Structure formats: structure tokens, C-alpha cells
Amino acid sequence: MPLFDLPLEELRGYLPDRDEPADFDAFWSATLAEAREFDLAAEYVPYDLPYANVDVFDVSFTGWGGHRINGWFLLPRGAQGPLPCVMHYIGYGGGRGFPHDHLLWPSAGYAVFVMETRGHGGANNGRPGATGDPHGSANPQAPGMMTRGILDPSDYYYRRVFTDAVRAVDAAAAHPAVDASRIVVGGASQGGGIAQATAALHPAVRAALVDVPFLTHFRRAVEITASDPYQELVRFLSTRRDTAEQAFRTLSYFDGLNFAARGRVPALYSVALMDDICPPSTVFGAYNHWQGPKEITVWPWNNHEGGGGYQSEEQVRYLHKLFGES
Amino acid sequence: MPLFDLPLEELRGYLPDRDEPADFDAFWSATLAEAREFDLAAEYVPYDLPYANVDVFDVSFTGWGGHRINGWFLLPRGAQGPLPCVMHYIGYGGGRGFPHDHLLWPSAGYAVFVMETRGHGGANNGRPGATGDPHGSANPQAPGMMTRGILDPSDYYYRRVFTDAVRAVDAAAAHPAVDASRIVVGGASQGGGIAQATAALHPAVRAALVDVPFLTHFRRAVEITASDPYQELVRFLSTRRDTAEQAFRTLSYFDGLNFAARGRVPALYSVALMDDICPPSTVFGAYNHWQGPKEITVWPWNNHEGGGGYQSEEQVRYLHKLFGES
Amino acid sequence: MPLFDLPLEELRGYLPDRDEPADFDAFWSATLAEAREFDLAAEYVPYDLPYANVDVFDVSFTGWGGHRINGWFLLPRGAQGPLPCVMHYIGYGGGRGFPHDHLLWPSAGYAVFVMETRGHGGANNGRPGATGDPHGSANPQAPGMMTRGILDPSDYYYRRVFTDAVRAVDAAAAHPAVDASRIVVGGASQGGGIAQATAALHPAVRAALVDVPFLTHFRRAVEITASDPYQELVRFLSTRRDTAEQAFRTLSYFDGLNFAARGRVPALYSVALMDDICPPSTVFGAYNHWQGPKEITVWPWNNHEGGGGYQSEEQVRYLHKLFGES
Amino acid sequence: MPLFDLPLEELRGYLPDRDEPADFDAFWSATLAEAREFDLAAEYVPYDLPYANVDVFDVSFTGWGGHRINGWFLLPRGAQGPLPCVMHYIGYGGGRGFPHDHLLWPSAGYAVFVMETRGHGGANNGRPGATGDPHGSANPQAPGMMTRGILDPSDYYYRRVFTDAVRAVDAAAAHPAVDASRIVVGGASQGGGIAQATAALHPAVRAALVDVPFLTHFRRAVEITASDPYQELVRFLSTRRDTAEQAFRTLSYFDGLNFAARGRVPALYSVALMDDICPPSTVFGAYNHWQGPKEITVWPWNNHEGGGGYQSEEQVRYLHKLFGES
Amino acid sequence: MPLFDLPLEELRGYLPDRDEPADFDAFWSATLAEAREFDLAAEYVPYDLPYANVDVFDVSFTGWGGHRINGWFLLPRGAQGPLPCVMHYIGYGGGRGFPHDHLLWPSAGYAVFVMETRGHGGANNGRPGATGDPHGSANPQAPGMMTRGILDPSDYYYRRVFTDAVRAVDAAAAHPAVDASRIVVGGASQGGGIAQATAALHPAVRAALVDVPFLTHFRRAVEITASDPYQELVRFLSTRRDTAEQAFRTLSYFDGLNFAARGRVPALYSVALMDDICPPSTVFGAYNHWQGPKEITVWPWNNHEGGGGYQSEEQVRYLHKLFGES
Amino acid sequence: MPLFDLPLEELRGYLPDRDEPADFDAFWSATLAEAREFDLAAEYVPYDLPYANVDVFDVSFTGWGGHRINGWFLLPRGAQGPLPCVMHYIGYGGGRGFPHDHLLWPSAGYAVFVMETRGHGGANNGRPGATGDPHGSANPQAPGMMTRGILDPSDYYYRRVFTDAVRAVDAAAAHPAVDASRIVVGGASQGGGIAQATAALHPAVRAALVDVPFLTHFRRAVEITASDPYQELVRFLSTRRDTAEQAFRTLSYFDGLNFAARGRVPALYSVALMDDICPPSTVFGAYNHWQGPKEITVWPWNNHEGGGGYQSEEQVRYLHKLFGES
Fold first, then answer.
1. What's the average model confidence in pLDDT over F102-106?
2. Where is the signal peptide (chains A, B, C, D, E, F) (predicted)?
3. Domains and their CATH numbers in chain E
4. Of B76, C46, E241, F263, which has fewest CB within 10 angstroms of its CB?
5. Cβ proximity of D143 and C144 under 8 Å
6. A92 has binding-site annotation
7. Read out DSSP for B34-81?
8. Exposure string (b/e) for C66-95, b if CB count within 10 Å is 16 or more?
9. Range A224-236 average pLDDT
């Protein structure tokens, strides 16, 4: 991939206009209030594969619409006192995978709460999922999740997902082994987009780890990249041509730019300059709107894999430092 | 595409074992009975583009689960007496498109009732759709429709679709311009699979036009083709490896082989020998099980486009002859 | 496909210089005069598939060089008085297909005269053709039609095609069911390019429907798109490097920019902003040169499929309005 | 490419039935007689780039239909007495290229007469061509040469090419520097197919060098390979479905199997076992029918590149030995 | 990917002939003896990222030719007594990646010793490597490692790698935290091939975990798959055609079939039936030759990803059972 | 390929900054001095295939590190007096091929000395090679040659290659049939890059023929093209992210910009404007820095094939003129 977006110097100052509906906050307040009327009913079932130094639980809780959402919860065995907890949201297409995919944080001394993205995990052979999306779509959709319910903010797929993510924080905060004042949201790509939204929507979040976030700056993304999943939108718009403004109106309730503008906690972002899945200008657009203390790691030669394991280590160091550890 | 399936001589005699659950008929009886508890409430709204010699209606009716299903209904203007009616079911990914996509049958003197396949039509720029699938999926799914609800026959996507198709026949049969004794089901690929199922499920069907049918002989299909949409199943099975038998059990309620074995009316099939989407052995497998009078057109040099416009003309001639017309 | 050409605001004002040979009009006058020395000998053979409300004829006439050109001629059955007639020219690679591919206009109350593009229709399984191009090429050519005879305007393939198109109008105008004062030329892509040229070359043309036209603004096209068929030119130029100026001189007699500049009748254009086959600047280049009354439909999210069925309905409305009907 | 055709042991014995029209020889006799009514008018224009030890001529002569055919003629400078001459026919898509592409034979002590394949050489940037095909096609065709005129043996493209090739031998045999009793035909792929035909059609040919020949065993080729150019036939047959038997009848006049069965002179063949352009069974099918003394070089790991430069050296050795040289 | 290899029933009994040089054992004895003359000089440098419940070391030791080989060594913190140790060998193209990629085994109570494959890890952005291959290749090679030194067993790349792997076992066995009687070799693809070889070459190995092994049954692999890395061999053989027998002779010293036939310890294999990188017959070929107690997990719907995380859990259970733990 | 780099007018003036290490000349002086301590030991073995008018030798000599380098040496037979000699360096991936691939220069009256690029020629079936690279790489590398030893200028692959190229000139200059005052270096792509370097490094070079040179202006190349081999660098940098500056420092010793700035002899360059392998700005960057008399041939419609045979003829004319011949 050659460089194809703005030069780095311009990216650093790129602050795009945001398209924000007047009732953005009201929409989300109502959505979350409605979801919280369901009993959270978090369950933690011990996992049957014996591990030696980590405790693993198959977790489930009630998300949007009363639907059960699955995940993993891992703790370093024998930890003293409540632990900081990393909420881990998952990239597009993947399920929760296996507990052993999530050993980094417990090995580093943190709890990790992995939340599945409903409906994903059915076609990623490395990351199988367990959670369906029992809600359908009032409109015909492009294959994938991007256009499910896109003609109405109330029906849109990511309304359910972001709500699930907030409820997951509720669940983690209530777990006795977790220090509710040290909950961190994180993820890459779709997971980064969810983390970005959750940081804005849940007051208990203490920090955010946002890697190459998806679901951000939709209008620019669909104009400058030919790659999925943003192209799901283009395929839909090229088909249901009469709905473009309606669709963009829906998206304005879910655009990472608007969540970033509500970000008040410390955030560690990452961006890759050759990323044609989540182009760098869409990432910097959000980062530059973020209101809290912030840092960004720039990976000049990488595509959407972004910082990968390098970034994971950056994150461990970042949290160690933030929480005064090690 | 080279030839890759059995030689034509073997195809002509290929009669595979069928995997049929004991309660196959009970399952469908219960499903249809439940659907018929909803008021059909067929509506025919005149279409606003003035045509000179055809009457066009934007049709909707209540399908599975009380959901509204859209379509088109076209009649040759000024026809005398009730007309034979062709039910037209649509291929994978397409919506109903435009009325002018469906002028063949009214021009040939027939009514045509075009039914949308719920949820499709969101990413086919030539065939936009209007009908969503408000029901979701209890399991994570591969993008597309093949694995939506696949872990339970009651939840499976095509249960809703086949039920919609039966209800569409109910609607057509009740229309005053239609001769309910001359209803014909037809379609290509997914549309052929739906037609095949509907011919078995609705006693009013008088004949079937089944082109290169999809949704037929699943187990062989997934072993011999690398092409979508059958590969949606493989991607799911490669991910949710623990569910293979459960998934195939669900599919046994929807397999075209089992519907074909219940086919009693005259049928005109078509098959393409270089078809790697719906391989010829899966088509002949159904055709050879069909119990009614039957003919099959073999296209030796074609892939999944099958007979295309040639086959459409074959079908007009076939129905003209069947109904003693022209 | 991301956006890759000029922004829409610039496109609206884009008026490129035209490269027009001094004897452009003389070239075409002589060409047409020569062609008209052949007896047109239009024949209309009734088609054997019985239709109920449309009359279908297998039409042929003498085009350039005395060669017979095939097509379809369809009329709404029982129409009163001479009808307006749409000349339908076909896109690259396609033949005339089947009569039922052309039912839109007769259903809307118009005659339609479908002309085959000589030599095409041999490798488009949905649109078979019947007309060869008995004339060869004095130069070696790239596969396809773009470089056939490209080293001499008199030998160039599209000289024959545009002449055929003019003679087709002669044929339609002479048909007793056609109102010769209401002949409209139309088509998409190559068909749009032919319509554009024919509108300039035949005084009887009353209006033009030009969708995503090909054969227009060659020099820019070959510099900004890597897609066929424009790339046929690049492959030729990369091989016969010594002939570039000679080839571009030939093309200047066939460039849609020069025909558009002679366009005096009402025209409805369409353009797609993500079209990499016929890039939007090449379309706007012609549209902005068009001298008659004009409108353009802009499809922001589409590639070369352009407006598809949406545009067809636009065209029906446009002609209904132009001819004061419905 | 994996192995995909018959195993080598079966290939060695593979002797397919030939489909030969009763008037095969009469067809070719008449064709050649007609062509020989045109004055051959071979011209040899010295090439303007000075070479030190080879004489280069831009050659042209009258081929089928009175059309001028171009080529190169190269001689080792200062050779004593008439030389054996290799007729070099060119692969699909290529023109004659440059004189320096053909230095092997003069450097080895032979004359070489390079004949262009009419119409090719317009889109191969390494091998530009100079010769057009002024004859067109009575039928619509697939892009490329395989289906030009395919509905009538008299109109078929390769009738013109094979005739040109025979006339090229006439020209070489008449050149004072050539020993007419030592003319060898050779080529790879299409060039191999032409050489094979010419060896059967011209009595003066003394030996044949046939590498991975194309235009041989059409019916099997179209069934087992998905690669061009054989797929040009499949695209045509998938479109003009009504013409399959007519097309195969035409091809029977041009099938290498039938020419091979008339091969009486010594022949050196080559075949590549991973060749999906000209599959090994089509090559062995011809080789096994060849009636003269014969050898075949088997390249087990190669695709259609076949023996490449290795085979060229084999050929030099083969001719040196045949002619008792070096 | 459809099924393309032998049916499962045949695979279970597939026992191909082995091509084993007479001096196979002598070759390896001499190779290992020579390597052991270098001081092993294993170094364990504590890793600078603080982990909470695992100890991480950047390990290096002297492998073949005195070259330093890098890896990771991880131990569950605070373990009692010497631990069983899993030697983890890496798949083609990958480096050692990050310590957090290898947390499974320490979390399950085992030590893990990750050995880099020299020279890999330069183009796998998720798994960077640190170890070069300071030895070159006496022959020209295809890009990649498969043909480096292939013309001489002593020069062949995998001679160095397998020797490194044996020396890594030497290093692990000597570590005070490791129970030298419970060393297990494991890996997937190339890692599986290395494990298979090491199990045969090092008497201290107690068990083997061999997933979809590469470097096994070369001659069949190159005939039935078109996928890399086996295709590196085909590209080389298609180029250096004169060397095929020499190359296969070299490969016979490295073929997994020959190592499997020397496998005496318990082994857990896995195979994927749609694997076109390491086709199932090549895996079963080795498995069926394995002489020790053995089990094989068959993944019917997977390609080369094989069992993935499912298989990892199988392996934990397998070792827990083997060592009577948990 | 569309145009994607700067417009031609800007290219003609494009003079990028050069990143040149202070010890550039010292580095190369020391490297060459060290190499010249090895005995050159050039050997010329007559080739066994008898040619009539050219003498062919299998040449070898001692290059960098004492390694033997192979090539061909061809002379027009019976030439009078010492001849000018063209050093021919080969493009990426190719070996020396066959003597008959190199007949142009001897046919034109020049000696040609073909030098293999060590290690290449193992996967180019048309151009097999004979020379390995017995030196390895201290760092892990991306497949291919671009990153072999890239972390240290002394270890970098092209240090060995450029040194071999200088020593090849030493060998040619010492051959009795060669006029040491008329040695010309030439090549395309990688060969052009080697020629460019050798012209700067060897005082005996009299002229340079540099076609679409590779290994030039690395930093721009990796930012504007997605094509190999420059992408080998990107893959490495995306993996070994910590090494970017170290890698670019190494590359600065090998960048064609720096060699071009030392070019004092007459040079004939070529560039292709649609070249995405060696983009035109990288070529013009070097050309514009070249200090000697210079010409450049611009191929506007070509990709990396550049001028091909056209350019070869240009070169013959250029040298004929330079040396006052013909």
C-alpha cells in the first residue's frame, strides 16, 4: 500500500467539521435508560480447561433488548485486592475466540472483560463467537453489519452494540474483583470504535485505548477508501439511492467524531499511515477532537494491522504508568 | 470454467440419498398454520409511472411472523377474465428491482406476482429491495443469509422465506384477476430453490419453473464448490466447528432434495454444466427426485447464468403449451 | 470504488478543449452520403414467440458498406396513430439480446428500435448478438473493437457503427408506425456514445438520452482510468508506440466531445461519480459542451452501472413530459 | 499449478478419436489453390539498423485474399551456398517484434523467415506487429481471434492464417539464399499449431519443431481448461448457444489432431505437464497421431512457457543432427 | 475451498512409499555432532516489560554453524519444582513475535521455549523476528527459504533449522527450571514439520504436538497443490530443470515421512481436510508412518488454519493427561 | 495503468534532495579495495552449442568475498581488433538465461559480458541462473533480496552485487578481445540500477545505458508504489518497525540518486510514465542528478516494460554514434 491519504503534517492538524444531531445526547440517554431497565444478570461460569495461574470465566449478561451477551472474564490467580479491569471490544467479524487469546492483561496483572459483538463470530475461523443478534433489520441490508437497520437510528445495529458495551462496563464495575474506579476501555478497529463510544457514554470509564478505530468519520471514509467494511455503506447507497441522507442521519448518532468530542479521560490512540481500512485522516479526525489528555502512536509503514503486538506492549506500559504500577 | 462435476451421462442418473427428518412434514404444516394466523392483508397500490399496456401495482402482504413483505404485481391491461399467474421468486442478493424488470410475463399474457426475499436487495445496485427481515438470529452468523439462525430449524432464515412464498401464493390466488387454478411458481438460483419448495408446500401450485436451483443438496454442494453463497456455510462450519451436525440437521428441513421428492406438478428445470455456484449434480439430484411430469434443459457451456433469456423463452413456450394457449 | 476524479463542483464547470479536425463535418458528410447509396432495404420479420400486447419484429437493414445490420423493433399492440420511437443503442460487448429485454418502451407507449453494434454479442452470455462486422482492420489490433482500423479514420471501426446508427434512424423514420418527428436516440456507455454521435449526425433526431457515455474525451480517459475498454487504447499505444499521434488523429473524428458540441436537441444525460469505466470528467466534458437544452442526473455512489433502472424511469418521465403525454 | 490432466503414463498412450470432415483435404486443396492465384510478390527490404554479422530484411508477401503479410528474414552474413531455413510462426497475441528477437537461427547458421499472424501484435508491448487482417467476420465474435468467422470454415480466421503460412513457405523456398529442400517449420503455442498445419499442407517442409501446440484437440481443451485463448470458444458457445455444432464443424477443418495425422516428416515436439493453456493431453493427442519420425521433450514442472530457452537449444541440436551439421 | 484430496476413508489408510537415502541417519548424526562442537552458551535475559504472573526471558543460544539463535523462554511465576517444557517451533514466515503471543503454556503450568526459525520474521508484521541466517546459498534460489541450498543436503536451509531445533532442546533440557524428562516438541505447519523432525532426532523428547505439518511428502505436495510455500519448489524446478533429481535427493534427507517413521514417542497430530497449503494426504502420509502411540484430530471444514485455538486446547488437555496433571 | 506520478513537465525538473552519508566514497573505496585483494581468476569456457557466427563463453570470475560469479561472454566471430564491450546487468529475479538471449550486441559488432546477479535466477523459468549468494544475512529478511543484510551497509546484499559488477568490468577490461577504453555498462530495472552504480564506481566505464532503473530514490518509491520489489522494503519496515532509520541509513549507501550524482560519462536513460514498479519520478530524480552528457527516452504509454525492443535499437544507434561506427 502506498501512502494515499493526507501527509502526516496535515493529519496532525486535521479537525473536520462534525455532523451532530441536536438530540444526540438525548438519544443515548434514552437508549441507555431503556436498556438498564433489564436486569443485568451477569453470570460467571468457571471455564473447564484448567489453567495454572489465571482464573477464567465464561461470562454473560443482559445487553440491549434483554438479549444475552457472551464474553470471557479473566483474572490473575491470587491477586490481592480489586484490580483494574480492561474492557476488551472486538474487531469486525470476530467472536470472543478462546480464553487463551486474552492472556495478556491477566499476565500483566489486570482483569480483562472481553465482550462479544453480537452476531459476529460466525465466519472467522480463528475467533469463533457465541452471541447472536436476535434483533433483525427493518430495511434490506448489505451483507455484514454496517447497514443493518441503517434507515432509523433506533433500529441501527450499532445502537445495540454500543449499549451492550455500556452494560458490560456496568457488569465489570459490579464484579467484586474489579476496582470500579480503574476501568479502561480498549480495542482495535471496530473494537476501537466501540471503546471510543463507551468512553463517552459511561462515566465510570477511567481511560481509553483506541487502536485504528473504525466507525469514525463515515462520510470521508466512504469517499476515500474502496475497502470493506466501509464499502458496505457504498454498496447500500449505490442500491438504495433514495436513502442517502436518511442513512447519513442515522450514522450521525454513531459517528466516532461525535463520541471523541465527548472524550474526557486519558486516551492512547494509534494510527497507521498506510491503513486503507480505517484511513489515517478518519483516525486523526477523531483524535484531534478528543478532549481529554491524549497520545497517539503513529505507525508509518503499516496498514490496518496497525501497531499489533508493539502497540499492546505500549498499552501495558501506558496503564502501568497511569496507575502508578511497576 | 472447465467441467468439474460428474459427466452428463452420470448426472442423468444421479439419485442421491436424501437426509430427511422424520417430522419434516409436521414441521412445515405447523409453520404454515402458524403463519396463516396472521391476516394476509394484501395491498395493491397503483404504481405512479404511467405505462401504456400494463397495470402495475406495488404489492405488500403479511408473511412469516406478521412481517410485511413487498413485491410487484403486473397485469396485461385489458385482459379478459382471470389470468394464469406466475409467482416470481428472486435470486440471492437481489431485491424486487423495478416494475420494468418484470414485463415479460404480462407481455406474454400472464399476471406476474414478484415476491421480495426479505432482507435482500440492500447491495445489488441493479435490483434494489424494500423488505427487511425484522427477525434476527440467535446464533452468530456469516455475512449473508445462509447461516442466519442455522442452529435451529425454527430460527432459520429460509423458514421465514419459504413461508413468505407460500403466503404470496395465498395472496395471488385471492386476487380477482388471477385464475387460482393456474398459478405457476418460478425463479432462478435462490428463486428456483424457493419455487421448488413452494411447489411442494402449496397445493394450489399448478406448475414449476426451476432454473439452476440453489438451496439443494447442501452436503454435496459444500464439498465440491468454493463459490458463494454455499461457501457461507463452509465459513460458518470452519468457525463453529462444534455445530456441524446441528447445522446440517437444520438444513435437512430446507434441502431442495426433500422438496423435489414432494413435487407432483409439471416442472421445467434447467441446469448448466459449468455452473460452480449451483453445481450440476446438485440440480440433477433434485430433478431426478422430482415426482411429477418433468423436463430439463441442459446448457452445456454455461456457468450460473444458466439459460438466461433463452430459458425465459422456453418457459413462455412451456406455459403456452401447458395452458393450451397461443 | 472511492472518488478518484475531480470534485463535483469542478465537474460542473469542466469544459475541456476539443481536438477537432478541420474536415470533421466533411468527413461525416461524405461517409453518410456514401452509405446512403446502398439501398436501406429494411425488413421486419414477425418474431415467432407469441406476445399478448406487444408486436415484435426481427429487423434488419443495410448499414455501412452494404452490410446487413440486425435488431429488434417492438410496438405496443393496437396503438393509435404513429408513435414516438426510441432508438436504442447497445453497450460494449452486448448483442441485441432478446425481445423481452426491450419491453420497457412499448409498455410505456413508445416504439423501440434496437440496433446491434456490428461484431459485438459474441461473448456476452446474456445478450447474444446476430450481426458480424464483415470489414476487417488494416492494422494489427488489440482484442476488442477500440483499435480496429485505428490508424485511419476511414478504416476505423466506429465509422461503420455510427453510420449504421444513422441509417437505423433512416429506417425507423420510414416505418409507417413511427412518427418521424419524434425519434429519440438513447443508450448507456457505448450506447450513450453512439446516441450522442447520432444526435449530431442525423437531423431527424428529436431528443437524446445519454447515459454514462463512452467514446468521449479519449485523451483524458486513457490517462485517468486503468479499466477497459479505454485500456484497449493504452495497450495498443504501449505496443505500437510510433502511432500515437496517428491514432489520436483518428479518434478526433469520433470523440464525443465533438459530437456533443453539435448537439442542438434536448438531452438527458446521466453520470456516476464513482465510475472508473467512463470517468465523470469525460461525461461532464461532453455534457458541458452540449449546445441544446439539457439536464444531467448525478449518481454519487455508483460506478459504471450508473442510474440503472432508476434512470430508465427518469427517461420515461422525461419523454412523457417532452411529448406532453400522460 | 498442480498436475491436473492425465498422468504421464496415460498421456504417452493417449490416442483420441479425431473428428474429421470428409472433405478435409478438398477444402484445403481448394483454399490453397485459390490463394496461389495471387502473385506472391515477395519483397525483401534491407533493415535500416546496421548489424555486423547478420543480414536483416523486412519481408512482405501476398497471403490469403491478396492481403500483404509482413515478417522478417534474417541470414548469417557471408554464408556459403543456400542455407536451411526455419519458418518461425508466432504465438497468440504477438507480432513479429524486432529483428533482434530472432537472432538465434542466423547465429546458428540458418536462415529464419518470421511470419506475422495477421491481426495480432496490437497489444503485446514486447512484440509489436505490422500486419492487419483486412477480412472481417460474418458473425459476432468474442474478443480475440478464436471465434472470428467461426460459423463457416470458409470465413474462419485460421483459414487465412494457415494459408498465409503455406504461402510463406512458398516465399522462402523461392529465395536464392534458401535451400528449398531443407525448410523447417516451427513455433510455440499458436506458432506450434501453425507449424503443425503447415507441415501437413506443404510438401516442401522437411521437418517440424512443434512446441506446446495450440489449436489442437479443441473439444477436450474447452472441457478441461479455464484459460484463454481456448476460453474464447467457451464464451462464444455460452452466448451463441444455438451454434455449437456448427462451430465445432468449422473447427474440425482446423484441428491439429487432423493435421498431425498427416504429418510425415521428422518432428520434435515439446509438452509441459503443468500447462493449463495447452493442456498436455491435447499435445500428446496430436503427437501420438503424428505419422512421421518423432521425439517429444517432456517438461514436468512447467506451465505454458514449456521448454523455453532449453527447448530452443534442443531444436538447434536436433536440426544440426538432422542436417548432419556441426 | 472444496475437498480436493483423497476421501477421508482413503486418507486413513494412506501409507505412501518413502524415499529414504541409505545414509539418512549417518547424515544427521554427523550434522548434530558437528553442531554440538560449538558451545551452546544459552543466555536468558529478563524481558523488560513487567508481567505479574509469568517470568519472561529473551533467550539465545548457539545453533548450527555457531550462529546465535533467538527466542523466548516463559515460566509461570512461582512454580514448584522443575516443569514440563513445550518447545514451540514457528510457522513459515513468522518470527518469534512478542512474549505475550506465547502465554498459553505458562498459564497452563508449563514452561515454553520458543525458537526462532533463522531468517524468517522479516515480513510478517504480526510476528517480527530477530534471527538472521548468516549462511547463504551456493545455488540461486527462489524467494523464500524452500530452495536455499537445495542442491546439496549439507547446504540446505532446513539442515540448519532442524539442527537449531535439536540444540534448542539441549538448551531447554539444561535449564534448571525444566524437567528434562518432560520435554514436548510442538508447532503448526513449518513448526509441525520441525517438531516432527526434532522428535526423531533428539532422544530427550517425550511427546510431539504436530499440527498440519509442512515439509512432509514433498513429491506429492508439489504435484497436488498450487499454493506456497510448496510452490517455491515448483518455481525452482521449472527454472533449474536440470536439477530435479538432485533437489529431490536433497529433500529426501528432510522429508517428514522419514522423520515420522522414526517417531517413537506419543504424538498428537491434526489435519484439515480443505488444507491446500499442506494437503491432507501429506499429513496422513506422515501420521500413518508414525511408530509411536498416536492420535489425530480431523478438521473437516478447515483450510490451513487447521484446528487453531480449538487444537491448542486439545493439546493442553492431551499434555495434562499425559503428565497426569489437573 | 493510469498516470499516477507527477506530470511530465514537473518530472523534467524534478531534482530531489539526496540523503548521502559523509563516508559514502570511503565506504565504496574500502569495499572495492577489499574485493580486489581476491584474485579475479576470470575463466572463459567455450560453450558446447555450436554457433556459426558468434563465439560464446561460459564466464566466471571472483566477485565480492571471493565468491565465484557466472555469466556469458559473447563475441562476433572473426572480429578485427579489440571490440567495444557492453556489460549487461540483469533485472530482478532473472539469471543469465541462455547465450541466445544475448545475441543483440555481438550481432551489432560488440562484445557483451553478461553478469549474473548472485542468488537470482532460481524462480524465473525463462532466465535460469547459476550463481548463488553464499553470504547470508545477519537479520531476518523479507523474501527476496531487498532486505538481505539491510541493517548494516557492510552486510547489505547490494554491496556484494555492486562489487561483483565492478569486478566484472575489471574482467572485461582485461580480456584481449575487448577494447578497455570502450566499456559500456547497461541494463534495465535492477540492471539499470547496477549499471548506474558501476558507472560511478569504475573509472574505465565509457558510457551508460540506464533503462527504468530500480534501486533509486528509495524513500519516494516506498511511499508512492504498492508494487514489488520496492514493497519488500515496506513489508520489512512494517514488521521490524524499530529499524526504519537504520534501514534507510543502509540504503543511502546504495541509492541510485547518489550514484547518478557521480555520473560523468555519456548516459542514455529511459523512463516509462505508467511504470508503477520504478515510478517515473524516481527515474527522473536520478537522471536530473546525472552530471555527464545525457539523453532520456520517454515512453508515455508503457509500464515497467519501458522501451523494450524499441529501446534496444535506440541503444545500438546511440553506441554506433558514440563510437563513430556504421
1. 98
2. none
3. 8-138+150-219+249-319 (3.40.50.1820)
4. C46
5. yes
6. yes
7. HHTTS----EEEEPSS--SSEEEEEEEEE-GGG-EEEEEEEEETT--S
8. ebbbbbbbbbbeebeeebbbbbbbbbbbbb
9. 96
CA E142 to chain centroid, in Å, comes to: 21
Side-chain half-sphere exposure of B142, counting CA atoms within 13 A? 23
Using CA atoms, how far apart are residues F109 and F107, in angstroms rounded to an integer? Answer: 5
Q: Which residue has the cell 463459490?
A: B227
CA distance F3 to chain C (A): 5
Q: Kindly state the greatest CA–CA separation across chain E.
A: 59
Q: What is the pLDDT of residue E326?
A: 55
Among the partner residues B121, B140, B235, nearest to A131 by beta-carbon distance: B140
Mutate to test the interface with C, among A225, A241, A276 (most CBs of C within 10 A): A241
Q: Which residue of A has its CA nearest to C298?
A: A241
Q: Which three cell numbers stand for residue F94?
A: 532473472
Nearest to B320 by CA among B110, B81, B112: B110
Q: Which of B5, B236, B238 is best to mutate for the E interface (most E CBs within 10 A)?
A: B238
The residues, any chain, with a CB within 8 Å of residue E157's CB and separated by 6 or more, are: E119, E133, E137, E145, E146, E148, E149, E150
Query: How many CB atoms lie under 10 A from the CB of residue F180?
Result: 16
Q: Is B81 on the interface with C (CB under 8 A)?
A: no
B2 vs F154: CA distance, rounded Å: 53
Query: Mind listing the pLDDT tens digit for each residue in B7-49?
Result: 999 999 999 999 999 999 999 999 999 999 999 999 999 999 9
Binary contact (A305, F226; C-beta < 8 A): no
Categorize the per-residue pLDDT at C326 as very low, low, confident or very high, splitting at 50, 70 and 90: low
Record: contact E137-F137, CB cut-off 8 A: no
Instruction: Output the CA–CA distances (angstroms, integers) from residue D255 to B204, D24, D163, in the order listed.
Output: 54, 11, 15
Q: How far, in Å, CA of C194 to CA of A171, rounded?
A: 66
Q: What distance in Å separates the CA atoms of residue A210 and residue A199, rounded to the nearest whole number?
A: 10
Q: What one-letter code names the amino acid at A224?
A: I
What Rg value do the Cα atoms of chain C yield, rounded? 19
Mean pLDDT of A2-7: 94
Q: Could you tell me if D88 and D59 are in contact, meaning their C-beta atoms sit under 8 angstroms apart?
A: no
Measure the CA–CA gap between A294 and A284, rounded to whole angstroms: 12
In D, which residues are within 8 Å of F108 by CB distance?
A: 49-52
Q: What is the ipTM of this complex?
A: 0.96
pLDDT at D326: 55
Helix (H, G, I), strand (E, B) or coil at F48: coil
In single-letter form, the type of residue at position E44 comes to Y
> Cα(B206)–Cα(B213) distance, rounded to whole angstroms?
19
Of C100, C308, C316, the CB nearest to B104: C100
A244 to chain C: which residues are within 8 Å by CB?
Answer: 300-301
The dihedral sign for the CA sequence E287, E293, E298, E302? negative
Strands (E), A101-204: 111-115, 133-137, 178-188
Considering the entire predicted model, what is its pTM?
A: 0.97
8 Å CB contact of F238 and A303: yes
Judging by DSSP bridges, how do beta strands B294-299 and B267-272 pair with one another? parallel
The dihedral through the CA atoms of C307, C308, C309, C315 has a sign that is positive
Nearest one of D239, C296, C162 to B300, comparing CA atoms: D239
Question: If pLDDT is split at 50, 70 and 90, which confidence band does B326 have?
Answer: low
Three-state DSSP at B203 gives coil
Query: What cell does E72 get?
Result: 523466548
CB F84 within 8 A of CB E103: no
CB atoms within 10 A of CB A49: 16
- Select from C18, C254, C19 the least CA-distant residue to C155: C254
